[in-house]
Amino acid sequence: MAKTIPVIITNSDVLVYDKNGGEFKSFTLPGITNEPNIPFYHSFAKKIAESQHYFKEFIKSIYTGRLSKNILAIVVPDDTSTLESIFINEFFLNSGTCKAVAQITMSQTLSKNISSYVSLSKSNRNVILNYIKNNEIQASKYYDLDRYEPNKIIEDSKRLHINIEYETTPIFVNNFNLNMDDFFDSGIVISPKQFMDKIAVIDVEKI
Q1: Which residues are 47's β-sheet partners?
Q2: What is the pLDDT of residue 207?
Q3: What are the pLDDT digits (tens) for 70-112?
Q4: Could you say which of 104, 119, 152, 173 has the lowest number of CB atoms within 10 Å?
Q5: Does pLDDT of 206 surpass 60?
Q6: Are 88 and 109 in contact (CB under 8 A)?
Q7: CA 57 to chain centre
Q8: Rounded Cα distance, 82 and 133, in Å
């Protein structure tokens, strides 16, 4: 039977859920240094075979059995570009750790019970507003991390999509990276533990 393995790409590492241990474990590639405004995993492309080898060994240290049966459910930052998304899928799919991958943004995981909401988050390069309806991103807006005004972002969140003007739409503040202090009064704050608890039970059929 296929085994879904939740994976979170954070601002600085890759977290893989250890179902036996009931916790996320961090994977970092030796020798990788963070660069401003560039997601860390871009460095994987510079030595891709080595990166995939280390990741495969990391997965083998957590999960036994045939890796080819695994499905990686990968949660990515909200400002992941189309090209970055393709690279992420190809990197993990060709790492020898799974038979398939499924990818979803952080904003799409914040609530399974509320069908329509606004997500507010930060990556290592942007502040991101996403309007989610029925698990799909309907509208987005990005703000440079070095030049943003919290009050303007909150006002924009009320006009991000025409539906918001006619519905009562909650705002979820994703504080997974512990960097959302400017927005604590702007909506429902999701703590790191709450976020990881949601991801720990994610299943491909639920994406």
Answers
A1: none
A2: 47
A3: 999 999 999 999 999 999 999 999 999 999 999 999 999 999 8
A4: 152
A5: no
A6: no
A7: 23
A8: 20
Q: 128: how many CB neighbours lie within 10 A of its CB?
A: 24
**Cα distance between residue 123 and residue 76, in whole Å:** 10
DSSP 199: H
Which pair of tokens denotes residue 77? 């930052």
Helix, coil or strand: residue 45: helix
Cβ atoms of 163 and 133 within 8 Å: the answer is yes
CA angle 169, 172, 174 (to 5 degrees): 160
The pairing of beta strand 23-27 with beta strand 70-76: unpaired
